């Protein structure tokens, strides 16, 4: 093998202890290969004094036993430092790469779970907490769901940027969780900078400078320094300076939805059921001055540097609400780190996420059960505590085998903060978030409650949260199926997009993005979510096309309609088909419309479920005859879900008789109501008097019984009934229905009042 080997002929150690000299290559059957360099020694194998085998002249110069010891030590280091390694490899655990790793990993958390076998209480806590919070794949899939939803919707939305926030977007889906959405108006963008030197020229937007209030470090004033267009929010303050006011900003956003009853909930606007909170805000691409030290202060391994860099690059949000003890101050805006906090939570490992869920459950089921301290604490305080503890502790502290220990660290920090009545904001420690909440007059009784949790230990915690029952100690064997159902219900709760696009180019961008996610995502659930958005965007594009009755190149127009409408039927069982029925009605093919509405009505059976219905029961859904565990999300939705039909502003698919209804951004109609309305209009054109009256009667019964109808769409349904009565010549009945539509408490169809006023005009 090497003609220049020094010991080839002279080394006689091969006969030592009576053993024949055997080469390494002969033992392992490795063929010789040419080597361009010069080897000084040929690898040899011997029997050592202790009876083992010894490899000499090899690259490492190690015995097999030494190699085994080093290999085992390496494996042990990888196990003990697993979280540190994962943090380096996957700093963003909401990424598709990390979700793919979890789905393909065969021994994730296996060693830690083996350690729990000797700790029955810790094991019980872990298993029941996972049953409430979800597996790590469940959590990451939820996070991915909101990321995908925001990215696609913001791509095709022409009016606003949607930012999902709150515990749902962070990955926790606990009972009672609301949908929190922060909105930035694209049409009224503003630049908010730290100082005048940060202004970039040329100026494209109205520009404000942050002026932090020393007495309220978590708040700032927004002083206007350049104005791109005339505004109505600016009033003189402190001489000739102009500042952006809070209340007019909120009122203007209220007026953007004048026909819906909204309720003020802090800085948010909520619907009647308070299931969705909208917070309209402004974005600054810069952090305020007093938050800059956060990026450079001493910390252990968390958060990862790449997450810190992303937070600095994004900046912060300005929310229109001031301090509670300065409610009349119309100039202070709260600095919100909602996006930064979501990035931080997305970098949590599984133990940190479980600890977060355990803290929230303890607040709800233990602390808030005591009327004397109820509402003194909030989940935001608990999240802040977990941020501080995660930063101060070694990342390897957060292992599943140490879950209760991590919870105890957070509880100890909370007790220390309550004792001094000071909760430092994670980004601005000078901002005491306990102000106006916890003080020396109420902290003693809260301390008693918290210390009772501490001294109760893990047994007391389990008893309070999970009602320990030795007779029923096993976790359900259908956890995987239950997890998939919960994920589907979360998506049904979100109910697709909240934006109404107005331009085809932006919709095409949304299609391209959705298609790229379909090709790149690893989760089949997320892929189906992207397919839903792909179908929904096709429904939007079909309504933004030129009228199907356009004389020039009519064939090409119809071909485009068919392509988008066919792709649009994959959202649910009926809404896409009803848009197709509208298309055939608009081009005058009434018999085709009647056949399609017949099909839609046959699908709207009592066992079907409405999208966005908050009253669904997961248990009933699992037992439904329409649900099969082997089907994908899209297949299940096409079998068991019905949705309203949403006509965009100036939709090309709206019947001419309803053209007035699409002067506003969106017009929503329940599926059965629209089916009977289209049938009435078709028979009206076909001169089928008896069939027309039957369709009108069926429409009346549908509205009366609120069939597949929610608060959204009820006023519109009554208005459509009035339109059909007016077309049939019964103006008195039409007047009554228009009047009833105006009196709806939740949402009022804007055209009901117009039609009522014009009803008896000559």
UniProtKB/TrEMBL annotation:
<dbReference type="Pfam" id="PF20266">
    <property type="entry name" value="Mab-21_C"/>
</dbReference>
<protein>
    <recommendedName>
        <fullName>Mab-21-like HhH/H2TH-like domain-containing protein</fullName>
    </recommendedName>
</protein>
<dbReference type="InterPro" id="IPR046906">
    <property type="entry name" value="Mab-21_HhH/H2TH-like"/>
</dbReference>
<dbReference type="InterPro" id="IPR024810">
    <property type="entry name" value="MAB21L/cGLR"/>
</dbReference>
<feature type="domain" description="Mab-21-like HhH/H2TH-like">
    <location>
        <begin position="355"/>
        <end position="444"/>
    </location>
</feature>
